[in-house]
Amino acid sequence: MTCAWASRTGDTLINYLYYIPNTIATAILSLLHINLPQLNYLLTWVIASVMLIIVIMVNVIIFIYVERKELGRFMDRRGPFVVGPAGFFQNFADAFKFLIKEMILPENADALGFNSTLVIIVASSLMIMTVVPQAPDFFYTNPDLGLLLAFAIFAIEPFAVVIAGWASNNKYSLLGGFRSTAQMMSYEVPMLITIISVVILAGSFNFSTIVNFQSSHVWFVIPLILGFIVFLIAIVAEIERIPFDTPDAEAELVHGWMTEYAGIKFALFQLTSYVRTFAGAAIMVLIFLGGWTGPFLPPIVWFYIKVYAVFTLFVWLRASLPRVRIDQVLNIGWRSLLPLSLFNIVIAALLRISGVFH
């Protein structure tokens, strides 16, 4: 029953996201004098899930702090520096502020759609990280179609967003929901076509196989630099970061599809946007930047060095570029990125046929 945590890379390393929870679960059941393998398996899954959520949330908190400090430097200011050491506890102060705000349900809003959307978006955002390995010895699950599954989960949010906009009974929310859905679907097409080029070279949808292939050949960012650029633009649009934040443009839509959400609900939406940012940066590292490979340092350290480097690039784009109009957003996706992604597949196919990658 432990096959879900089995390694698909042929190595004999311990998967710590199974080993630690299994050790804790075994100790708990031993203290209670319970000998049920099924209960041990279930408790191991629960503890592993909690561990993964803790890892995600810790990184999200750091992401928010790093972004605030980096934006401060880009704008020639200090960023947070009052609450806690170097302003690190400002995030917790803001979270407490959201907690004490009232949660309201708009008049004539659809309560089921309004509230269920939050659950769908939060759950799907966390679910993405269950199929994204962070090291050869640290993963929740490692399916053969992990890359495909990750983007299938990414594709859930557009449907939830348009439901949120409709259920809010607000014209700004509805327009923001339509914008968000149009933008995500427009950029998912070139993004998915781009990952096909990676699969052509690596011969697999499995993240570990893709990373191992790069470690024995070359990082895919070098032969597929065009695909890397297309994927970078598409993933920034997919997670709705500046300059592609038109679905929640404050100047014209108040706050888009999230306008009517207040208090902890709004905070959770903001939190999940950083979870998806973490997932997007992690996937970029795995399929283009060699994943956790690197000299001297442990694999998981290299993974996080690269993830934070990609996140810094996201922040740099936010600090440097103005918001793109919705018509420009769609033109970039369909008229520019789509042809480039198709040309990138041709490049990958030629490289494969030529025998450079085998």
Describe this structure in words.
It is a single chain. The chain has 358 residues and is mainly alpha-helical. It has a domain at 105-353. The protein has 13 helices and no strands. It has helices at 16-31, 37-74, 90-99, 111-128, 146-154, 157-167, 171-202, 207-216, 225-238, 250-253, 263-288, 299-320, 326-353. The protein is globular.
List its traits.
single chain; 358 residues; mainly alpha; globular
Topology overview:
Layout: H1 16-31, H2 37-74, H3 90-99, H4 111-128, H5 146-154, H6 157-167, H7 171-202, H8 207-216, H9 225-238, H10 250-253, H11 263-288, H12 299-320, H13 326-353
Short summary:
The protein has 358 residues and is mostly helical.
Given the helix and strand composition, which structural class is it?
Answer: mainly alpha
Name the helicity range: 55-70%
List the helices and strands in order: HHHHHHHHHHHHH
Largest sheet: none
Q: What is the 3D shape?
A: globular
- The count of β-strands is 0
The residue-averaged pLDDT reads 86
Strand content: under 5%
Distance between the termini: 34 Å
**Alpha plus pi helix count:** 13
Rg, Cα atoms, Å: 21 Å
The stretches of 5 or more residues where confidence is low (pLDDT under 50) are 7-12
